[in-house]
Amino acid sequence: MVMKRILIGLSLFVCLASMLLTIGCGNRRMSDAELQHKIDSLKALEVKRQLKLQGINLEEYSPFQMFYDSLDIQTLPIRYSDDYVRYLPGFRVVPLSIMTYLDLEGREAPKAMSLPETIGTRLVLLAADINEEEYELWLYSLDNEYFPVDKLLLYEPQYPSKTNLTQKTQEPYFSITSDYKIRVMEYRSDHDRFGQLSTFYVDESRMFVEEPPY
To answer: By residue range, what is the domain housing residue 51?
Structure first.
């Protein structure tokens, strides 16, 4: 209903603005490009004004918060699967203006999805492209201003050794439970074929902390 009112008001405003701009230019006729630029600027101001009347102040939102709010939410629990890391269902492309916040310079098409927000926990899944078809998968924690605090590598593509193609490859695995326990199969070196299943949680400072092994 709020958006419908804004759109109706915006349509009337654009018509009136077009008439005023045409009249106000005197004998000089604006080009189509100039007129459209003026209308777009006035339109943006009118949208802000209309939203502010509804209690929504765009100036209070950082670009990263607006991006975060636009993401789809990944329900929990989740765990690794080949299809999940390959097709990234529900992930959205990260805008260029946001990449610097996430240390993604040089990536071509990173994608992101948020996790359900709870007290003390605000998390984003970030798929950082390695090439056109393969991605690393990271988990980012955000502070109260929606800026990154810490990140944890959940998955990276594995390749068989070029010198021994029959050698057992490292098996990827991760999971995130509904109470935000994060389990990741970690390998200490390229020659480690068994790995260690590590468990992490998010502490009060939004850092990923590894639980000690039993």
So the answer is: 2-60
b/e string for 62-77 if b means 16 or more Cβ within 10 A?
eebeebbeebeebeee
Residue after which a domain boundary falls, among 60, 79, 99: 60
Task: Name the pairing type of β-strands 123-129 and 111-114.
Answer: antiparallel
Of 37, 60, 83, the domain-final residue: 60
| Cα Rg of the chain (Å, integer) | 24
Q: Two tokens at 35?
A: 């007129």
What's the distance, Cα to Cα, between the start and end of the chain in Å? 55
| Cis peptide bond upstream of 89, omega within 30 | no
pLDDT in tens, 35-88: 555 555 555 556 556 656 655 555 566 778 888 989 999 999 999 999 999 999
Whether residue 98 is found in the same domain as residue 173: yes
Q: Structure tokens of 44? A: 């943006």
125 and 114, same domain (yes or no): yes
117-122-126 Cα angle (round to 5):
110
Asked if 129 and 44 sit in the same domain, the reply is no
Q: Would you list the DSSP string of 134-195? A: -EEEEEEEE-TTS-EEEEEEEE------SS-TTSPPPPP-EEE-TT--EEEEE-SSTT-SS-
Same domain, 160 and 54: no
Instruction: Write the pLDDT tens digit of every residue in 146-180.
Output: 888 999 999 988 755 444 444 555 567 899 999 99
- Do 81 and 158 belong to one domain? yes
| Domains: count for the chain | 2
